[in-house]
Structures are given as C-alpha cells and as structure tokens.
Amino acid sequence: MYYFYVFVILLKLFYNPNNKEKKLRVRREKNIDRKLELYRDTYLIDKDEISNKLSGKNNIYVEIGMGKGDFILELARRNPDNLYIGIERSDAVVLKALKKIENQKNLLFVIANIDDLRDQFENTFDGLYLNFSDPWPKKRHYKRRLLYREYLDLYDKWLKKGSLIQFKTDNDILFEFTLEELEETGREAFDVTRDLHEDSRYSDNIVTEYENKFSKMGFTIKGLRFYSR
Description:
Elements lengths: L1 H13 L17 H5 L6 E2 L2 H8 L5 E5 L5 H9 L4 E6 L2 H8 L8 E5 L13 E7 L17 H10 E11 L2 H13 L5 E4 L15 H7 L6 E6 L2
Parallel strand pairs: 1-4, 2-3, 2-5, 3-4, 5-6
Antiparallel strand pairs: 6-8, 7-8
C-alpha cells in the first residue's frame, strides 16, 4: 500500500493532462482478427454493412472515441429503446469493449477513423457524445482536435437538427479551445462546468474508466453541452 501511494504522488507531480496526446494506451493483442470474429455480429467495419444495420432505425446515439466502452455500454443498459453506436479506431481497444457487452442488443461498435466516415452519415443521429478526446496539445495540431470547427460542421451533417452534443474532458487546453470554437462559429454552449463531478446539472453522469482513474488523482473534469444546427 505504501508503494501505491508513492506512485500516486509521483504521478500527480509529473503527469500533466495538458501535454498528453494518447490516453490509456492498449497494447495490440496477438491474433486480434481471429478474436474479433467471435463478436462479428456486434462490430462493423464495412460501409455498406454500417448502412444496412442503421437503415430504418430511430433514436440512434453515437459516441466518437468510445475507448473501452464503459460509457456507451452503460447508456445502452439505461436506455434499452435506443440504439447506440460506438466509434473507435483501435481494434485492440474495441476488442476489450466487446468482451464486456454480453447480450446487449442495442449497441454496435464501428472500427474506423472518423475521417473515413465523413460521408457515411447524414441526418442520422439523435445525439452525440465526446468523452476525453485526444487533446492534440501542440498548436500546430489544432485541426486534429475533434472540437475543431470542421468537425463541428461534420456533426451538424451527421445529426438531426437540434440534437444534443455532450462533451467532457480533463484537459484545460482542449476545454478552452472548444469554448472558443463554439463562440467563433456562432454556437452556444450551456451547462458549462469546470468541475463536473460537483455540478448538479451532471447528476446522471456516467463515469468512464479514464475519468475515474484521474479524478481520484485530483484532476477536475470539465464539461459542456451544445446543440447541432
């Protein structure tokens, strides 16, 4: 136990959430394609397959960068009448999520980079979640941030007009950048908080693995909401 507390103290001293570009890195597993095949009904990789699965469906919600799936899996459990789509570019991370879902019928995962799906959806989703997106802290990489204005326009295309977009992060740079992008593009943020866990407006918050780990170390979670247009 002593060594655990020493580790936590050292991590708090030297870890800076504003300087990270990767979170919770997952080592690639051997024979991952074979392992993924065990869950073939639950993940999608082909564009035609995605279109067929979503055709005629209503009440569809998407999380971009779902990580190990804790957040979207809990959403699916709480709301069985909705369909949830988790998008994640790492097949190794998706495999970890697939191992958790058991018989959750209203949840599908898409293994893809968001940039490869730009023309895949139009007026499809009823809501979108962005949780702990890569902050890309270097200034020259700002266009890669998922809250950059070109992505905001993409979400407007993907979502039905007036759909709720929810965002949370532990990263100060990304949070301030998001507020600026929303204001400069004429979008209105609301429920803005710099301490989400102490804010009653987020009493129904679903805590992700990443969020739980770093909030315990003293990092505050920021959040906001806005609507697609």
